[in-house]
Amino acid sequence: MAVSSVAVTAPAAPDGAYLLLDVAGTPCALPRAAAGEILPLPDLFRPPSCGAWLAGFLNLGGDAVPVVDLAQLLGLRDAAPEPGLHAHIVLGRDRALAYLVDRVTDLVTVAADAFRPVDPARSLNGCVAAAIARGDRLVHALDPDRLLSAEERMRVEAAARAAAARLAALPAA
């Protein structure tokens, strides 16, 4: 019987720092290096053309930043939740994309031996890069570069351009 092995490559976190997230009750983690800021949930502009997992657009200094609802994207929740008291937006380092999560719960340093292999075929587009052992539970380590497919990324960018054009047509506040 052949034994296959799955190489574990931790998502890009050279310092081992990860943001721990609550995503519809599922523990997940993003490399700290991928996050620019953590923001409380603001009012989002949500045009009717947004898909189910595109929560809307954040007006960030006049730039329309698309906000992806991670729970809906990952199939953990069917409908948009009522905004929770602790909901957060994790703004990407490049400020081109943000993620809506139920809560950012912690910032931790993860030792290399805490990573467990995950077969890339077991998650859409290989977005779960590894599992992180934390006590008696495993946390899904997400690869931000694989959360959206190339086609999804192109469509989100097109929607962001349309939202920016709408925003630019309004007088400054």
Automatic annotation (TrEMBL):
What InterPro entries does this protein's entry cite? Answer: CheW (IPR039315), CheW-like_dom_sf (IPR036061), CheW-lke_dom (IPR002545)
Coiled-coil parts of chain: none
Q: Give one GO biological process term.
A: chemotaxis
Q: Which SUPFAM superfamilies match?
A: CheW-like
- Cellular component GO terms, alphabetically? cytosol
| Residue span, CheW-like domain | 15-153
Q: Which residues form the signal peptide?
A: none
Q: What is this protein called?
A: CheW-like domain-containing protein
Species whose genome carries this gene: Methylobacterium gregans
From which lineage does this chain's organism come? Bacteria, Pseudomonadati, Pseudomonadota, Alphaproteobacteria, Hyphomicrobiales
